Amino acid sequence: MSNTDFVLAVEDLTVSFDGFKAIDNLTLYLDRGELRVIIGPNGAGKTTLLDLICGKTRATGGSIKFKNEEMLGKPEYRIVRAGIGRKFQTPSIYENLPVFKNLEVSFPHGRGVFGALAFKCTQEVNDRVQAVAGEIGLAGKLDWEAGLLSHGEKQWLEIGMLLMQDPELLMLDEPIAGMSARERELTAELLQRICQNRSVIVIEHDMEFVKRIAHKVTVMHQGKVLAEGPMDKVQSDPRVIDVYLGH
Amino acid sequence: MNNAFLTWFRTRGLFSWLALAVVLLVLFPLLLDSFRLGLVGKYMTYGFVAIGLVMLWGYGGVLSLGQGVFFGLGGYAMAMFLKLEASDPESTKIQSTPGIPDFMDWNQLTALPAWWEPFQYLPVALLGVIVVPTLLAFVIGYALFKRRVGGVYFAIITQAIALILTVLIIGQQGYTGGVNGITDLKTLLGWDIRTDSAKLVLYYVCAILLLLAILGCGWIQRSKLGTLLLAMRDKEDRVRFSGYDVAMFKTFVFCLSAMLAGIGGALFTLQVGFMSPSFVGIVPSIEMVIFAAVGGRMSLVGAVFGALLVNFGKTYFSESFPDLWLFLMAALFIGVVLAFPNGLAGLIDSHIKPWLARWRTAKAAAPMAPADPAPPPVPAAAAQPPEPSLPAHLAQEKT
Amino acid sequence: MSMTDLYNITLMQGFAGLSLFSVLLLMGLGLAIIFGQMGVINMAHGEFMAIGAYTVYLSSVLAERFVPGFVQAYFPFAILLAFMVAFAVGWLAEWALIRHLYKRPLDTLLATWGLSLGMQQVFRSTFGPKEVSPTLPDWLMGSWSPSEGLDIPINGLFVMALTLLVTGLVMLALYRSSWGLKVRATVANRPMANATGINTRRTDRVTFAIGCGIAGIAGAAFTTIGSTGPTSGSLYIVDAFLVVTFGGAASLLGTVASAFGIAQTQSITEFFLDGSMARVLTLLTVVVILMIRPQGLFAARIRK
Q1: Which domain holds residue A241?
Q2: What is the average per-residue pLDDT within C133-149?
Q3: Is residue A152 one of the residues assigned to a domain?
Q4: Is residue B194 part of a domain?
Q5: What is the CATH number of the domain that holds A42?
Q6: C195 lies in which domain range?
Q7: Average confidence score pLDDT of chain B
Q8: B-chain residues within 8 Å CB-CB of A92?
Q9: Number of folded domains in chain B?
Q10: What is d(CA A102, CA C303) in angstroms, rounded to the nearest whole number?
Q11: Residue range C204-218: average pLDDT?
């Protein structure tokens, strides 16, 4: 495939589990600085797509290019170091470490074994932790044990841990699941702030929320892209309506 | 004393380290006769294995049932050197081939095997003590952790390796001394290691190395690597997707624990004067786990006390009540799992420390307000989690 | 050496391999249920085998003392008894110990190791430290010579037949009975199984006990081959675990295949090398293969 300007170029991606194609010949391009929301009914392959991009699941065929560099077949930690960050569906934080440590450990220095041994929490690291904590609204809770945070705060903390890495592509799997209305509001603002200088992919079910944040929406169905475009256009697409309202 | 210094001391858990140092360096040499002290010296070598397991199992969440392999490799590397020194042509002239170890002669070997040659030199042997266990651990660890093998599968495979090495050593008696092991070790560069004075020196060498090893491991625990190990135990995928090569970190602690076990094995050989497959196999390997478990799988100092205590109990009971010992051992295994997952160190943290704190506040408050009721006791038993709790330096930060 | 000699050696060698295969399979079967299906590491598996062996020994002693006429016939009953005793002890162990530890596999490993130490001491205190052998009925002794120069030991044939029977029964029970359905449902999705009205706690206990009972049968069968001592059980434990792990823990078919593969490797290498080297080589092969393919021989790819 030729090189492109896209930050992420997924082409002809396929993965099958014992014959069942969870992702079927999928092609998707993402611009720099774009916030893309992926929607679709359960089992459409949304989470599997993120799993494939971040290397958690091995693809059967196709290509995933990040900044024109092939990501397929690379180990997860190399994909992360290339600049792809991923948030999991259920908040995945270190419950029995303090919030500060959660963020500090995510700072992208000292990533090798001996680098980690020599790593020191310098003023730079400390400033960065403070800044990110402010961004995600946890500045006052840095010394809390992360397991004591509320569900919404845990989601923010995980986003914060990703921000520490300053990824060029951020992938968020249902970031507002289980959040109160107020928390959703804050998360929407947070997402709009953090996509200033990076690309973001969000999987979400809440249409109001999607409308608020999305630049462009991709609808997935049975491992394929069903429709793509601005929210209002996608919403009026008869195929999309058909998929959502039943067969 | 300066308050800041005291705090610095406390956050690094150095008080318990200091207590251990006093016990090992002052108390035992003063109180015990040379035979008992020799026993403590022997038990201390297991302390190396135990702190290695604290790092690997307590911090890394990886249980190895093959630590005896590394203990044995270190011990054998040392024993090979000592055996060669003891087998000079002069003292072995009655053999049909003088100048080779006696067991080789008995097994009709007529020349020293090539892989024994380098062990004539002390630096090579000392290097072997460290490198051989570490290298083996690297090969096993990297292969398994790369493929995400952990938990019980890792335990089973390391146990199988312990069995393989034992069968190999026993089967190849011409090269290894077989089931008897390598015995009759006499001198180290001409220095007789069997005398009481030599034993005392070796005791102190062992104690100081052990104390240094604890400091080193404590430093690793407080580094980012230590935090990452705890993080991995909690959410391995999150660590992986934060850009860390999880397999490499686990391999590192596995190598560290192997190296420590190897050093322990070498010191064992020096102090006890022989090495045999009975320290390598399945049973000794799993007993080493119980040392760490009894002392507290999260506590370095605790694990050393665990090693001393269990081994002391073993010596005492198997002499006086041999029938009871296995029952006691069974109770230990089941007890530390069901009732005291954090071992002795955990008991001290949950019972003694709150009691001490209460006592201190009561004493401070006494002159002013004698009627002031003591603060309510910390509900230790209820607060005790089924999982090993946080190490002190992290727990401190969350106040 | 004539052609018939060569033929006979090959045949007997093949039989030795098959015999070892049935031993390994019989050892692994109980574990395949406990470890493979339930995911519980039972380090006392070998001691449950020893329970079976001691039960047979005890039956033989009792039969000799009280009903000498029965000595020729007690053996099948003793095997049944071995199953029942091991089943009962397994039931007890599950109730007292295992059920508290289902979510902590590594701790289960340590606790069951403790259990095995305790059981060993019970054996030692009850039966003494020496190895014992039951008096076997005459029909289990000697060998069968279908042709000149061909000797096939009857006890080997007996173990083989028993293995075949037990394997068949386990397969039938696991894939055809309602217990098997409950076990598989519980393994696949515990909360869901609970929700559909399966008493998963009871299923766990019965399953664990059945696994132990089968270990008891294995131990009983092995009295025809060797003697039993307090620590005999611990000799089997690594092999038993390797057989199950190598086969792919959740697959009963895998256990059969891996027992076959390990047995053949062992008996073929034994032909060329001495016993201990053959064992080292076989174990090493299994470990190296497990390092390369940790999921074992039979494992399904699932979406997760």
Answers
A1: 8-91+164-245
A2: 78
A3: no
A4: yes
A5: 3.40.50.300
A6: 40-247
A7: 86
A8: 235, 237-238
A9: 1
A10: 30
A11: 92
Is C225 domain-assigned? Answer: yes
pLDDT at position B65 is: 93
**Residues C269-285: tens digit of each pLDDT:** 887 888 788 889 989 99
Task: Say if the Cβ atoms of B170 and C117 lie within 8 Å.
Answer: no
Q: What is the DSSP string of B36-74?
A: HHHHHHHHHHHHHHHHHHIIIIIIT----S-HHHHHHHH
Answer yes or no: do B398 and A98 touch at CB < 8 A. yes
Residue B235 lies in a domain: yes
CA dihedral C103, C108, C109, C112 (to 10 degrees): -160
Range of the structural domain that residue B65 is part of: 20-342+384-398
- Report ipTM (2 d.p.): 0.89
Per-residue model confidence (pLDDT) at position A223: 86
Touching subunits of C (3+ CB pairs, under 8 Å) are: A, B
In angstroms, the CA B28 to CA B41 distance is: 10
A192 inside domain: yes
Give the closest-approach CA distance of C248 to chain A in angstroms. 17
pLDDT in tens, B213-258: 999 999 999 999 999 999 998 889 999 999 999 999 999 999 999 9
Q: Is residue C275 part of a domain?
A: no
Q: Is residue A143 part of a domain?
A: no
User: C300, A18: Cβ pair inside 8 Å?
Assistant: yes
Indicate if the pLDDT at residue B328 is higher than 70.
yes
Q: Please check whether residue C160 lies inside any domain of the structure.
A: yes
Which residues of chain C does B386 touch, with a Cβ-Cβ cutoff of 8 Å? 104
> Structure pTM?
0.89
Which amino acid type is present at position B382?
A: A
B359 has a pLDDT exceeding 60: yes
Chain A: residue whose CA lies nearest to B251: A113
Residue B172: its chain C contacts at CB < 8 A? 276
Number of domains in chain C: 1
Nearest residue of C to residue A15, measured between CA atoms: C303
**What CA–CA distance (Å, rounded) separates C72 from C60?**
10
The answer to whether residue C259 sits within a structural domain is no
Cα–Cα distances (Å) from C214 to C46, C56, C217, in that order, read 11, 14, 5
Whose tokens are 């858990």? That residue is: B13
Chain C: residue nearest B327 by CA?
C118
pLDDT of A65-76, one tens digit each?
Answer: 998 889 988 999
Q: Tell me the nearest-neighbour CA distance from A171 into chain C, angstroms.
A: 18
User: Residue B240: inside a domain, yes or no?
Assistant: yes
What's the number of domains chain A is made of?
1
Say yes or no to pLDDT of B388 above 70: no
Which of B55, B225, B242 to mutate: most A Cβ within 10 Å?
A: B242
Neighbours of B324 (CB within 10 A): 13
